[in-house]
Design brief:
The protein is an alpha/beta fold and about 350 residues long. Helix content is about 45%, strand content about 15%.
Length: about 350
């Protein structure tokens, strides 16, 4: 998909990667807001420099990994401390190196982390600035390590300790985590052990002016643009709109289809609410968006409706910006589908 104008976000992340490592950076935002696309553009542009090296892992490519799968995803066997990812040679990203004959069986977390640190330190020794990027890090949350009679250790919890060591303590490596799971961000944000060790950067909906400029560049008429900018908020929606126009569908037809599909998804979701949740409470939360696209945290999150709220976030109906205390639908078209649902 074409890279649409994200100059502000691109410049922020490019500059961040060139500063001294001092904290973990969480890049968060609604699903499909362009987090990964912007990050890959950063890698593409900074890879032209010889003093920066990227270790990039996109966990969305994999089913929720087991311990063994995690090791295979993160390590490449070979004769060097870090090696090109064989599946991503054109992008020039690396994986942590490990010996050809290394046995993954009965491997302790300390041994895993030692191998990661060896790769990072080797890059630093060679005069490079290593940058570790993990897309959808929260997919590692259910992996535990048992070794030598040890009680199971949470991989994710221990990884955070390693990340703090690499960034805030030793300033060896940038660690950037991308996620659309805002309940995961809330866990991190409220974790006292990570206080003063983490920063947060929101990649949000496209701005209306940006959408207008892109549609104009793509050859849409002023009438089409004036209609579309009220509904479009995500980059992939522009790509779909462009394709549908080529297929002979009008802008209005396309957007009405989107809203109808989203409304039907909502109806199905509510009709299949788990028994432990209250459908009336779900409708009460959605009712907050009848007239407002953004609602303050304190106006929605109540003790008696917290489970219903989490259900809506987990099913990507609502986006919870815990850092700014704002709750909104995951897209503008989702908001219109909620409004249509509330008319019934």
């Amino acid at each position: 998909m074409k890279f649409y104008n994200r100059e502000k976000e691109l410049n922020y992340l490019k500059t961040y990667c060139q500063l001294e490592p001092n904290s973990i950076l969480f890049v968060y935002g609604p699903k499909s807001s362009g987090k990964s696309t912007v990050m890959l553009k950063v890698i593409e542009e900074l890879n032209k420099r010889d003093d920066i090296i990227f270790f990039y892992y996109d966990l969305r490519e994999y089913a929720t990994p087991t311990k063994d799968e995690f090791l295979n995803i993160f390590f490449e066997k070979g004769d060097k401390k870090y090696l090109l990812n064989k599946l991503e040679i054109n992008l020039k990203i690396f994986k942590f190196g490990i010996e050809e004959n290394f046995d993954f069986n009965n491997l302790s977390l300390n041994e895993v982390f030692t191998k990661i640190k060896e790769s990072i330190k080797e890059a630093v020794k060679e005069g490079k600035k290593p940058i570790l990027i993990i897309d959808e890090l929260q997919k590692l949350k259910n992996i535990y390590f048992n070794h030598g009679g040890e009680e199971g250790k949470s991989l994710l919890n221990e990884l955070f300790n390693l990340f703090v060591h690499l960034t805030k303590v030793r300033h060896l490596c940038h660690v950037i985590c991308l996620t659309s799971d805002t309940l995961f961000i809330e866990e991190v944000y409220s974790n006292s052990t990570l206080e003063n060790t983490s920063e947060y950067y929101l990649i949000n909906w496209l701005r209306k002016g940006c959408v207008r400029d892109i549609l104009k560049e793509e050859g849409f008429t002023e009438e089409e643009i004036n209609y579309a900018i009220n509904y479009i908020s995500l980059p992939y929606e522009i790509a779909l709109l462009v394709n549908n126009k080529k297929l002979g569908l009008s802008v209005e037809e396309t957007i009405k289809q989107w809203i109808n599909i989203e409304k039907n998804k909502l109806l199905y979701l509510i009709a299949n609410v788990p028994d432990e949740l209250n459908e009336n409470k779900i409708n009460e939360i959605l009712g907050k968006f009848k007239n407002d696209i953004k609602v303050k945290y304190e106006d929605i999150i109540k003790k008696e409706t917290i489970n219903e709220f989490k259900f809506l976030v987990e099913n990507e109906i609502l986006f919870y910006d815990v850092i700014n205390g704002i709750i909104k639908p995951t897209s503008v078209k989702k908001w219109y589908s909620i409004k249509e649902l509330l008319k019934n």
